[in-house]
Amino acid sequence: MKKVVNYFKETYDELVHKVTWPSMKDLQNSVIVVSIASLIIALIVFLMDAVFNAGMTTLFPSM
Fold it and tell me: 63 falls in which pLDDT band (50, 70, 90)?
């Protein structure tokens, strides 16, 4: 039990005193970059799916 308590104390100490947390401005910039990248990737996947669907419909019109 002592090992578990010691583990949580060390974890808390590391998170509070040793971890460098990003500033709010850095965090907002990261959120914007990730959101834009996600939208671009989603658009690319959507376009690939539409092209693939059109090709399959052209090759196999009865399906």
Answer: low
Contacts of residue 63, Cβ cutoff 8 Å, sequence gap at least 6: 56, 57
Nearest to 9 by CA among 42, 1, 44: 1
Unique residue bearing structure tokens 């376009």:
47
CA–CA gap between residue 6 and residue 10 (Å, rounded): 6
Q: How far is the C-alpha of 44 from the C-alpha of 50, rounded, in Å?
A: 10
pLDDT tens for 11-49 read 999 999 999 999 999 999 999 999 999 999 999 999 999
| Rg (the chain; Cα; Å) | 24
Cα 28–Cα 31–Cα 34 angle in degrees, nearest 5 = 150
